[in-house]
Write a structure and sequence with these properties.
Order of helices and strands: EEEEHHEHHHEEHEEEEEEEEHHEEE
Helix content: 25-40%
Strand order of the largest sheet: 3-4-8-9-12-15-16-17
Distance between the termini: 43 Å
Bound molecules: adenosine monophosphate, magnesium ion
Radius of gyration: 20 Å
Largest sheet: 8 strands, antiparallel
CATH architecture of one domain: Roll
């Protein structure tokens, strides 16, 4: 049995052709990925900008420490370790994110399910031993992924996973939440133009330095990182816009010539297998863009499109296995 493990973290990239305004850029490895914040400001604002960058990365590390499943002391790890035993009092931000994830669960008819932890652990796609689980292991794990078995106590900010073996996984929403938090820090610092790229979870803030729409490349799922299948124009109506892509090409392993990726159907516990290669969501809120790009990928084109069309200010780009690309009505594609 041969395992091949690939990891591609580039999801999309911003083009800034001919931009002359000074940039301040910093990249750090946080939230399990390379995070880059680029700020476009005049030189005289440099102290303010440097401080905003420091504050933004401090916040990203704080969120990582609270939400990472890889850190035993994080709030999420503590909730998971106490599954079936007792409720765990958590930080207010963590509580809010988990309650928000309920909204995403509800609107996606359960396609986005943060209680999917036991299935994610079984497949171990991101771990050192990815494998195809036995059917009986999947059958045993699925009853432990019921969102209704999560108890919220709004008075004490406590979370209780009612059954032993349950676990939360916020991997499909946390980077979006972190991107929103970063954007708020930059806006509060008076920053007018910036790009936040948390491993492909992107926010464009304010107006492009060229005073034109931002140009965002959608990764070609069959290409090399940085090969774009389409480029879209993104205008920012208010404050910022987020662009987030989910796709089976991003993290996977191969066994006996079959590719197994990291986005699971909560219905059967297997990697989603439908007509799509990737889904990009464009939204004024990165947390929702993150959760819904995962959810729409799970739902497939028809149900996913219906969901996006019912959401205000939300657009989508769908890349299909046959190489075709479809978008919702207001997405502006750039012809190369
Ligand atoms: P994303 O890259 O944002 O699409 O999120 C994928 C990650 O979210 C995976 O690596 C898992 O940790 C987790 N995940 C997988 N399937 C689901 C699902 N159906 N609902 C919620 N989270 C999921
Ligand atoms: Mg996501």
């Amino acid at each position: 049995m041969v395992y091949k493990y690939f990891s591609i973290t580039f999801l999309s990239l911003i083009f800034l052709l001919g931009c002359t305004q000074p940039r301040y850029s910093r990249t750090e490895f946080v939230l399990g990925t390379n995070c880059t914040i680029t700020i476009f400001e005049d030189r005289k604002e440099s102290v303010l900008v440097e401080q905003a960058l420091i504050n933004a990365f401090d916040r990203l590390r704080e969120i990582d420490n609270l939400m990472s499943v890889n850190l035993p002391a994080s709030d999420i790890s503590r909730i998971n370790a106490s599954a079936g035993i007792e409720p765990v009092r958590v930080n207010k931000d963590v509580f809010n994110l988990i309650t928000n994830s309920f909204i995403c669960y509800f609107y996606s008819s359960g396609a986005f399910n943060p209680a999917i932890g036991p299935i994610v652990s079984l497949w171990d796609i991101d771990g050192s031993n990815p494998r195809v689980p036995l059917q009986q292991e999947i059958d045993a794990a699925l009853p432990l992924t019921k969102f209704n078995d999560i108890e919220f106590d709004y008075d004490t900010y406590s979370i209780f996973l009612k059954k032993q073996g349950m676990s939360l996984d916020l991997g499909a929403i946390a980077k979006g939440y972190a991107a929103d938090e970063t954007a708020v820090i930059l806006l509060n610092a008076g920053i007018k133009r910036a790009i936040i790229d948390l491993g492909g979870n992107v926010i464009v803030l304010g107006q492009n330095p060229r005073k034109k729409p931002w140009r965002v490349g959608i990764q070609d799922p069959n290409g090399q990182p940085g090969d774009y299948i389409r480029i879209i124009n993104v205008t920012v109506d208010q404050y910022y816009t987020s662009i987030v892509t989910s796709g089976g090409y991003q993290r996977y392993f191969e066994q006996d010539g079959i590719r197994y990726h990291h986005i699971f159907s909560p219905a059967d516990g297997y990697p989603v297998n439908n007509e799509l290669l990737s889904v990009t969501i464009i939204s004024p809120n990165s947390m929702y863009a993150d959760a819904y790009s995962t959810a729409v990928f799970v739902l497939g084109y028809e149900k996913g499109l219906e969901m996006v069309n019912n959401m205000p200010l939300t657009e989508a780009v769908f890349v299909f296995k046959d190489g075709s690309v479809r978008t919702t009505n207001r997405v502006e594609l750039i012809t190369p």
